[in-house]
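User: I'll paste a sequence; please echo it back and then give the predicted structure.

Assistant: Echoing your sequence first, then the prediction.
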Amino acid sequence: MTATRPAPARTSDARPAWVTERKLASWTRWVACPVSGGVETLTATAPYDAGPTAQVPACTAADVAAAVETARTAQPAWALLTHDARAAVVLRFHDLLVERQDEVLDLIQWEMGKARFHAWQEVLQVGNLARHYARHGRAYLADTRVRPPVPAVTKVREVRRPKGVVGIIAPWNYPLYLGVGDTIPALVAGNAVVVKADPQTPLTLLWTRALMAEAGLPEHVWEVVAGPGAATGEALVDHVDFVSFTGSTATGRLVAERAARRLIGASLELGGKNPLVVRADADIAQAARGTVLAAFANTGQMCIHIERVIVHTDVYDEFTDALRAATSGQRLGQTYDFSCDVGPLASQAQLDKVSGHVADAVAKGATVLAGGRPRPEIGPYAYAPTVLEGVTGDMGLCLGETFGPVVALYRARDDADALRIANQGTAGLSASVFSKDLASADAFARRIRAGSVNINDGAALAAGTVEAGMGGVGDSGLGRRHGAEGIRKYTDAQTVATSRIGPIGPPPGTPLERFVAMGNAQLRALRRLRVR
């Protein structure tokens, strides 16, 4: 693996040279601290040099409550706009994002450390989502006519009303995609939004909020709060009308419990321990490449990344050789250009967790086939892309989410054995199958317990399909982002029933017995006609 020097035209520390104090002030003004005034601050640590990024105002619980009320006041006027008017703001935002993407790519890398290509994937995804919901949101939320109980003289429609104020708790690993990508459909549906920025990556979100203002979004329709995770997040759940959370399963349970006490809805994308199955007929080169892309993208710090690779015994040795070669060819480094394939981990906590999982596995008998160690000569949180074999159930990384650039190999006797291993554990977020027999692979994929399954792709295909829902089953969460459900979840269904003849029931003066007999005759006739 090769380390590359940081690109020129940067300051001596990790901060991009163009990020001036004036620019920081223009972004941090979007933190909503109407009660405390933002006296307290938080400062994250930059992964490239373990130095501080920038001070950001820290919100109190009172600030969060006030921000929600401010958003609630602004929401009705936003909801009264036509869909086209709201969509126009989102489309202008799309154009500005594409035009100024280099700025946010720098910020994502500075705050989170990922390789630039993986930062660009966030821009691509948010751009696609902005365009998709701006153009298709009207159809997703259109009134639906249903058959009324009394044809001709009555009409029934199901309509969609915005929830009101949507709370979004954004994670650090995809600060643009998972913070803004969830905000866009909520706004298009007519809601106001309050987003809690993760303490690790607030600047990316604040830059985006400023860009959305430039696109024409009213000031208080989207509020941003920042602060310590638990206190700020709890305050948000306590005041909004719906909450969208992306993060760990443990925290997701707490969010769901708190939301349930208020009888508000929650959408939760949580942890995964995602399997990739290499069947006996797989194209080995494709499978190795797909594994590397899905396992080491974002330095393994994504919920849908591959952590378990299950290989048919007939091709195990051939695949293992190919995977080792592909892993060793990954360029690990820290640059603000596209010369690296894998960046550092995001924090000391992530480095400690990954190192601990690998050390525990090795101590209990696992074998390191590639990587398996930190790379401090590259950066303080750099860790080599790692392949292990011989992982057993008593090791923490067997079924516990590592969330780093580590995969474990498992040998399967046949498809049934591979399916058994793939479905181990309680998570069910994403999975992958490599096979040349597409029909058989499709049938196999449907038996894997996961919210999405990719065939001959590691993870990107399903996640990048913005018209299809994305989410998990089991301990991997509730609800879906993307597609129809990705915007409808931010609305309530309302039934509007209209009668042209007044109240529906027995006409005045009609004996009830006669009315009941008429109703029964109608039921028998409909049954014979097989209606409904």
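The chain has three domains: 33-42+56-270, 274-463, 506-532. The CA atoms of residues 468 and 483 lie 5 Å apart.
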